[in-house]
Amino acid sequence: MTQKKSKNTSIYFITITALMTALVYVFTAFINIRLPIAANGGLIHLGNVPLFIGAILFGRRVGAIAGGVGMALFDLLSGWTVWTPFTLVTVGLMGYVVGLIAERKPKFGWYIVAIAAAAVIKIIGYYIAEAVIYQNLIVPFGSIPGNLVQVGCAAVIVLAVVVPLRKAVNRIIPAYAI
Length: 178
Description:
By secondary structure, the protein is mainly alpha-helical. 76% of the residues lie in helices and 3% in strands. Strand 1 (32-34) and strand 2 (43-45) form a beta hairpin. Helix 2 (48-58) runs antiparallel to helix 3, helix 3 (60-78) runs antiparallel to helix 4 and helix 4 packs antiparallel against helix 5. The longest helix has 29 residues, at 2-30. It is globular. The two termini are 21 Å apart.
């Protein structure tokens, strides 16, 4: 019985991680607004919505893989290739931290804290990325408002749906009940 449960858990993990990775990519690639500001334009997208939902509902491993790979895949396929390694690390870390906090403290108030932590990681991660890419410590400040809007929009959507989704997941996939 234990081996069967372990096998089922692995199948759930692979399936859910692949699904969440695809959703992160799709929400980043197709639900976005390109900004005519900042050094490289910038992008406001909803890729953080499935990232945060996946991390909160399924934990740090799903959050890290789905977020990092999904958004890095967008960078790779959209012509923003130079951003790919920075996105993989920054967004992977965002997903990991959100999932870690949600695993340890599965309460609504802690989901807010987790998303706030992700915002800090995003701002610092992309500040460093822009500083490296543009060889300038001032230019990256222009991206902070866009990063805050991006995470803020995702937070509103995620916090509105995550509690009912958590209940549904716990009924449908008991292996992921937290």
